[in-house]
């Protein structure tokens, strides 16, 4: 009987697993090449709920990144490892840093394998060239993130054996940056432009996607002249535009807009986006993980373009969305606002409400919730049935980045330039804010930075902006507050700190400049390969 069992096991081991392919038999057809290409796009993205990012482009990797900023707070509390990225307690064993690291090198390994083998497939050379360009874009964009958050890290461009992988050396940040720039430029040559993508090719990379990441790379390295040239080239191609309907850009109904240059693709019921489960308010059966901070909410001024003031008669404590920049209403929930067929009731005195603002309920910790990214009429399974994409690059970012590059390069700021960039973004039909007319660079800079913050809120850009602007010691230090509740009788005895404006106390950060703006290589990686710790 033992011999029979051993023989049976040997036969089982000879069979190919049902969820993988044998490498020697794989690179034989165009259909298999397309499967491999899909795998490169997916990288380490996981479907269903997750609390630690497995990839830069999963919803957890994009939206949860905001927990480390002055935009949002993780309901799980100060010990959340996302919060720890910037509150002065970041350590090399942080599992968020490790998640991004592992996801990065998983995608890189997939891309390296693809590029080493795609030339063996018998199909049209033009298709091989395009697929290779897509994968070079994917690999280069991954190294973009590595360069910006770790600086120095291994530059791996071939498939490694386990021994080689465990003894790899670090490349300098300059080497990583040069590689990203070279690869993105090469990818642009063989990628189709955005307008050439067919409906069945939604989600695939275009020239504009690669160029936008190239622009990001130049911005991150303060090469503003080159950044300006790249962004201007995207603009001059004329294939993308500012959509008149801001809110719909983040829902299935309009996610195919030309404003969304590149997005993470989700398909309800098959590869679902579980962000609704994490972010819906409790009244809608969500976990309310994402809690916008008062500093973000207050960055949205009044609808005439003037800054917010609680003392201004236009500010209404009973309806904080009244008279405000419309993007406040499109992006956030506040006490008394509607969410689908529900009323979002988070008042700290309303003890019977599921969404009551406390330090203990599975509900808001700030008095604000997330509306952005959601079709409020959705009524399927919150974990698996929602198919809304998550934007990675929007044309609005391109315009704002172009203006920033021109400003920081010291070029003249004209009214025409303002109208073509920041005013096109804030002047879209559904927002309709008055145009910016300030042309003095020093005065315009904070206006532009605030516009970028509120336009791209919760889209995963804020931490990178804080790092590259070197403002962590300004915006990530001190006490952070939520919404104001001056009529609350419970506030004086419930809020952990008391604010003259009756804002709910949320947390305190102590960002360490020069430490927290360069992530440590995960401790588990250094334990295997001590050279990574040097």
UniProtKB/TrEMBL annotation:
Localisation: Cell outer membrane
Keyword set, alphabetical order: Cell outer membrane, Membrane, Signal, TPR repeat
Pfam families per UniProt: SusD-like_3, SusD_RagB
Domain SusD-like N-terminal: start-end pairs: 79-219
GO cellular component, one term: cell outer membrane
Location (main, coarse): membrane
Domain of life: Bacteria
Family: Belongs to the SusD family.
Protein name: RagB/SusD family nutrient uptake outer membrane protein
Gene source species: Zobellia amurskyensis
Taxonomic lineage: Bacteria, Pseudomonadati, Bacteroidota, Flavobacteriia, Flavobacteriales
């Amino acid at each position: 009987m033992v011999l029979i069992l051993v023989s049976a096991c040997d036969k089982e081991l000879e069979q190919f697993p049902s969820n993988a392919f044998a490498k020697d038999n794989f690179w034989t057809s165009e259909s298999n090449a397309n499967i491999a290409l899909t795998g490169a796009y997916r990288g380490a993205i996981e479907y269903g709920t997750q609390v630690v990012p497995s990839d830069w482009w999963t919803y957890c990797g994009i939206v949860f990144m905001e927990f480390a900023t002055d935009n949002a707070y993780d309901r799980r509390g100060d010990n959340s490892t996302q919060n720890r990225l910037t509150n002065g307690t970041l350590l090399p064993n942080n599992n968020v840093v490790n998640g991004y690291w592992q996801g990065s090198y998983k995608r890189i390994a997939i891309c390296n394998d693809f590029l080493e083998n795609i030339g063996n497939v018998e199909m049209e050379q033009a298709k091989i060239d395009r697929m290779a360009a897509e994968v070079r874009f994917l690999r280069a964009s991954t190294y973009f993130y590595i360069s910006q958050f770790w600086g120095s890290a291994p530059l791996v461009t071939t498939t490694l054996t386990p021994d080689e992988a465990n003894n790899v050396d670090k490349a300098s940040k300059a080497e990583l940056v040069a590689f990203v720039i070279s690869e993105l430029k090469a990818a642009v040559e063989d990628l189709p432009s955005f307008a050439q993508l067919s409906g069945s090719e939604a989600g695939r990379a275009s020239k504009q996607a690669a160029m936008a990441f190239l622009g990001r790379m130049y911005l991150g390295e303060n090469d503003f002249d080159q950044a300006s040239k790249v962004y201007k080239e995207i603009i001059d191609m004329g294939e993308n535009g500012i959509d008149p309907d801001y809110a719909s850009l983040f829902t299935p109904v309009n996610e195919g807009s030309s404003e969304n240059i590149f997005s993470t693709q989700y398909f309800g019921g098959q590869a679902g986006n579980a962000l609704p489960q994490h972010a819906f308010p409790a009244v809608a059966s969500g976990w309310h993980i994402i809690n916008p901070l008062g500093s973000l909410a207050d960055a949205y001024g009044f609808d005439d373009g003037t800054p917010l003031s609680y003392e201004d008669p236009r500010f209404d404590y009973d309806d904080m969305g009244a008279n405000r920049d419309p993007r406040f209403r499109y992006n956030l929930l506040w006490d008394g606002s509607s969410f689908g067929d529900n009323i979002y009731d988070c008042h700290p005195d309303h003890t019977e409400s599921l969404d009551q603002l406390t330090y203990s309920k599975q509900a808001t910790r700030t008095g604000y919730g997330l509306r952005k990214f959601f079709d409020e009429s959705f009524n399927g399974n919150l974990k698996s049935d929602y198919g809304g994409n998550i934007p990675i690059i929007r044309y609005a970012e391109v315009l704002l980045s172009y203006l920033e590059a021109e400003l920081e390069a010291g070029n003249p700021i004209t009214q025409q330039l303002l109208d073509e960039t920041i005013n096109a973004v804030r002047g879209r039909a559904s927002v309709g804010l008055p145009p910016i007319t300030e042309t003095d660079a020093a005065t315009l800079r904070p206006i532009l930075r605030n516009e970028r913050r509120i336009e791209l809120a919760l889209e995963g850009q804020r931490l990178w902006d804080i790092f590259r602007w070197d403002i962590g010691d300004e915006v990530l230090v001190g006490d952070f507050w939520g919404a104001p509740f001056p009529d609350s009788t419970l506030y004086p005895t419930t809020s952990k700190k008391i604010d003259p404006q009756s804002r709910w106390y949320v947390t305190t950060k102590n960002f360490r400049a020069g430490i927290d703006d360069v992530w440590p290589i995960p401790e588990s990686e250094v334990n295997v390969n001590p050279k990574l710790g040097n």
